[in-house]
Design brief:
about 190 residues, 6 helices, binds inosine 5'-triphosphate
């Protein structure tokens, strides 16, 4: 069983391969840019999946994700990629220097679409807190800042395999994988 994953992010590919291995799904990676429309993660994933499925003429998945920080009114959210490339983790820590409420969530929306059907969405969320400094150099982007609930280590201190056991991406891709197995009928 195979699925084409559209992303320009190699870290997502590595994580998705590790997750799909558990479900016997082979991942084919294609880096094919698509417009990220204004809206929430679901809007972006729906539009992107449809756009690429029609252009490539085959079923695809895309994933839109981000980190949502409560005391920053859920910023950076859908702007996570831009904010990471501009102010980065140090900028986020600065914005939060006086905030005692450190609650944050990573959220992931996976969009599946075929050229002839409407997109389907699978969601995953993980709760945690923003640490007081960057910790670890595993993973990518906000991982060194994010300490998942029940842990003392950040995602940046966990291996890909450990993060893959319970991350936002694990939850959304696992929901997709279970559904996809029935859909394909294997
Ligand atoms: P594609 O759109 O090409 O898939 P991208 O990196 O631009 O790749 P997003 O649009 O979904 O991905 O942007 C989400 C950003 O949120 C991403 O660039 C990271 O900065 C951050 N992010 C998402 N998931 C993350 C994770 O598991 N760990 C750390 N940061 C993450």
């Amino acid at each position: 069983m195979k699925i084409t994953f559209i992303t320009g992010n190699q870290h997502k590919v590595k994580e998705a391969r590790g997750i799909f291995d558990n479900f016997g799904i082979e991942l084919e990676h294609v880096d094919f840019g698509y417009p990220e429309i204004q809206g929430d993660l679901v809007d972006v994933a729906k539009f992107g999946a449809k756009h690429v499925a029609v252009r490539l003429g085959r079923p695809v998945i895309v994933e839109d994700a981000g980190i949502f920080i409560k005391s920053l009114k859920w910023f950076p959210g859908t702007y996570s990629s831009y904010v990471q490339d501009t102010i980065g983790n140090k900028g986020i820590l600065k914005l939060m220097s006086d905030n005692t409420d450190r609650y944050a969530e990573f959220r992931s929306a996976v969009g599946f679409c075929t050229p002839k059907t409407e997109p389907k969405i699978f969601l995953g969320t993980i709760s945690g807190v923003i640490g007081s400094s960057e910790q670890g150099n595993h993973g990518f982007a906000y991982d060194p800042l994010f300490i998942p609930e029940g842990y003392t280590q950040s995602f940046g201190e966990l291996s890909t395999d450990e993060k893959n056991k319970f991350s936002h991406r694990r939850k959304s891709l696992e929901k997709f994988a279970m559904w996809y197995k029935d859909y394909v009928g294997d």
